[in-house]
Design goal:
EC 4.3.1.3, Histidine ammonia-lyase, single chain, disordered N terminus, 3-stranded mixed β-sheet, Fumarase C, Chain B, domain 1, mainly alpha, histidine metabolism, 2 domains, Aromatic_Lyase, Phe/His_NH3-lyase_AS, about 525 residues
């Protein structure tokens, strides 16, 4: 897979979908930023070549699963040739059985790109026009309406993928590029796209993949990598504002426990605290603080473990991005073989694993915020960082908000992948629940963003209250980015809009950018 160089600020770059794997950056560019897609000539040739094998099998009187039989527990029925277009159409219609809230546009676009990537391998047996129609929908900004519930993460993300396939045949409901909901036939006509009339094997090829859970994994990994750098920043701000020491983050101490993520996090915190007048002010023999609390001292250990878990998840995503997931699949030598590659377990496991580390990073962040508010532990700051304690409550309830989110994150950390409810008359008797794991991880990522934002807001206030001492240049830059949107210490104000403003700074990457404007790229 090749792709024109692009960044998040250049959404018009083109993604060329070829026989090789799409990259995580491709997924983000197409899903979030509207990058255009184009099938490579090599892929179109491979698709056309494989299709000839399916057409030969369709003419063979011997039943072949997915080509001339029913599906799932109904695979024993041979379907006559004159009913096979109806077979594929009925498959898509019946499997488009989702329910519940509408799934986010970026998730659906990621799902469609990844299904297109599998079609481009030439291993599914569809005609070139099927793949080209998927590309056309993406390029036109047409997004099928997909619902929250309907996938068990095995036999692929069946219902979500079926809702997309339904749009490709001109049925169901979509949103156009402006976000307006309308019948798929109307949207396709307006974009000059001809609906596909599905032939043998094609309906099955469009719904049999892990694309929904994988797309959400790729997006979550992208967001979490940036959030873990932000967690190092907020931890450094808290260490500084709570008169902690940076000596514990020294490279030689970290090397005694050689986890790569821990070393990266500690290195970030060392760079962030370098040349801090606040830290220097209490680095003397008469300092009474013997050891900092775990939430300060062990911050790189927790954020580092999260990084190493993320690295494993990214490796699983890379393997999955290189896969051709379908059942049956057309092998390189032309065999059509049933397989179990559609089972979402490998993806489901890491989705659950990431939800665990997200909850723990957020939990440690909340503990640091709480220390700022307690006069028994904040080393001379006013109660709750209030302007006039008793009259003012300061950040008391901001910590409540954090605690409520962290509690929710702990519930979301309960794994989905340990559950299985058999389906299809016990033919599909063990499923992954990977889609459910992906859905809760998206909520977890949002929760971590909010928790870190509250810590940043509170730590910035704490740093201001250490005046005339000044923070380190990188943490000062983060504090200043917050101050551009939120006033400094003073009497109580309506706090919710201030929290929301910093949440947006965290989500957009502006807080990370502020720190990196001084430090350079953080690990």
């Amino acid at each position: 897979m090749t792709m024109t160089a692009q960044t998040e600020s250049t959404p018009t770059a083109e993604t060329v979908v070829g026989i090789g794997a799409v990259s995580p950056d491709d997924v983000v560019a197409v899903a979030r930023h509207g990058a255009k897609v184009r099938l490579s000539d090599e892929s179109l040739a491979a698709i056309a070549q494989t299709r000839t094998r399916i057409e030969a099998l369709a003419a063979d009187p011997k039943p072949v699963y997915g080509v001339s039989t029913g599906f799932g527990a109904l695979a024993t029925r041979h379907i006559p040739q004159e009913m096979r277009k109806q077979l594929q159409r009925s498959l898509v219609r019946s499997h488009a059985a989702g329910s519940g809230p509408e799934v986010e546009r970026e998730v659906v676009r990621a799902l469609m790109l990844l299904r297109l990537s599998t079609l481009a391998t030439g291993r599914t047996g569809v005609r070139p026009e099927v793949a080209q129609t998927y590309a056309a929908l993406l390029n036109a900004g047409i997004t099928p309406v997909v619902h929250e519930y309907g996938s068990l993460g095995c036999s692929g993300d069946l219902a979500p993928l079926a809702h997309c396939a339904l749009a490709v045949i001109g049925e169901g409901v979509v949103r156009d590029a402006s976000g307006q909901q309308m019948p798929a036939a109307q949207a396709l006509a307006a974009a000059g796209i001809t609906p596909v009339v599905l032939e043998e094997k094609e309906g099955l090829a469009l719904i049999n993949g892990t694309d929904g859970m994988l797309g959400q994994l790729v997006l979550a990994c992208h967001d979490l990598r940036r959030l873990l750098a932000l967690a190092d920043i907020t931890a450094a701000m808290s260490v500084e504002g709570l008169l902690g020491t940076g000596r514990v983050f020294a490279a030689d101490l970290q090397a005694l426990r050689p986890h790569p993520g821990q070393a990266a996090a500690a290195g970030n915190m060392t760079r962030l605290l370098e040349d801090s007048p606040i830290v220097a002010s209490h680095q003397s023999p008469d300092c009474t603080i013997v050891q900092d609390a775990y939430s300060l001292r062990c911050a790189p250990t927790v954020a580092g473990g999260a990084r190493d878990t993320l690295a494993h998840a990214e490796q699983v995503a890379a393997w999955e991005l290189a896969a051709a997931v379908d059942n049956p699949v057309v092998t390189i030598d032309g065999r059509v073989e049933s397989n179990g590659n559609f089972h979402g377990a490998p993806v489901a496991y890491v989705l659950d694993f990431l939800a665990i580390v997200v909850a723990d990073v957020a939990s440690m962040s909340e503990r640091r915020t709480d220390r700022f508010l307690d006069t028994a532990r904040n080393h001379g700051l006013p109660p709750f960082l209030a302007d006039d304690p008793g009259v003012d409550s300061g950040h008391m309830i901001a910590q409540y908000t954090q605690a409520a989110i962290v509690s929710e994150l702990k519930r979301l950390a309960a794994p989905a992948s340990v559950d299985s409810i058999p389906s299809s008359a016990m033919q599909e008797d063990h499923v992954s629940m990977g889609w459910s794991a992906a859905r809760k991880l998206r909520k977890s990522i949002d929760g971590l963003t909010r928790v870190l934002a509250v810590e940043a807001l509170t730590a910035a206030r704490g740093l201001d209250l250490r005046a005339p001492l000044q923070p380190a240049p990188p943490t000062a830059a983060v504090r200043d980015a917050i101050r551009a949107r939120v006033q400094g210490p003073g009497t109580d104000r309506w706090l919710a809009p201030e929290i929301d403003a910093v949440v947006e700074l965290a989500r957009s990457g502006e807080l990370l950018d502020a720190a990196e404007s001084v430090t350079g790229p953080l690990d």
